[in-house]
Amino acid sequence: MVPASYYLILSAILFTVGAVGVLIRRNALVVFMSVEMMLNAANLTLLTYSRFLGDVQGQVFVLLVIAVAAAEVAVGLAIVVALFRHEATTDVDEANLLHG
Amino acid sequence: MEMVIFFILAVLAVVAGIAVVAQRSAVRSALFLLLNFCSLAGLYILLNAQFVAMVQIILYAGAVVVLFLFVVMLLGMERAEESPDTRRYQAVAGGLLAVLLLGGVVWALVLAGTGTASATATAGSVRSIGAALVGDFAVPFELASVVLLVAIVGAVVLAKAKLEE
Predict the structure, then answer these.
(1) What would the pLDDT profile of B126-144 be if each residue is shown by its tens digit?
(2) Helices (H) and strands (E) in chain B, counts
């Protein structure tokens, strides 16, 4: 049986890769994909603890996280589409209308 | 045996994750994201969470990645490449912060410990999840549906607004 710490370290690595994507990529779509990856890493942690503590609540929480992630993708991609129509770019550095 | 499967899936997930960040083209990033989601679904099955694994395949691999690909391809965004003058210091600072973050998270995990696992888990069954969802978690479950409804209405409003003019 795989120890829980392996899963937790894998989840930490995936979370970090996602965070790097958010920090260094400027294509809004890739930033969204990285955020999804971070959410998945958090889900992996929840499922690991759910498995090793023998409690189903972690899995229920993962389902709620997935629902929120789906909502986030729908709204986020709509914003990207609106941005692309308005500015013809998906570069997050170009989206600085509220910059002041 | 379980260890071998775990390492195959884990390496696959990490490599696909790095490829998502490293690929220049958004379409390829989306396809590597699909690989990442699928290997995570395999890990969920290893964790005795079969129902969540199936939801992961249907919802993430099926719906979210397809949504990404639709947006990329229908709007022709793959032609809108990132400008080549990628600021070097951003990548360096991002990498440094990533190492710090990884160290912090792993340190927190070491401090927290994983406890002595009760390996008796039969908690993955659809029956127990369903009972929890409509039992103890009925209110969050209903709130999630409201969140989804609001998100769908918001997405339609945001994406349609330009067409009316």
Answers:
(1) 888 888 888 888 999 999 9
(2) 7, 0
Quick check: B47 and A51 CB within 8 A?
A: yes
Q: Does B37 reside within a domain?
A: yes
User: Can you read off the two tokens belonging to residue B62?
Assistant: 């099926």
Q: What is the pLDDT of residues A79-90, one digit of tens each?
A: 888 888 877 777
Which of A40, A49, A53 to substitute to test the interface with B, most B CBs within 10 Å?
A40
Residue B95 lies in a domain: no
Contact B133 A81 (CB under 8 A): no
The residue of chain A with its CA nearest to that of B151 is A71
Question: Residues A76-99: what's their mean pLDDT?
Answer: 80
Sketch out chain A's domains with CATH numbers.
4-95 (1.10.287.3510)
What is the value of pTM for the model shown? 0.87
Helix/strand/coil for B120: coil
Contact B138, A59 (CB under 8 A): no
Q: Which domain holds residue B61?
A: 1-80
d(CA A31, CA A15): 13
Do B67 and B138 sit in the same domain of this protein?
no
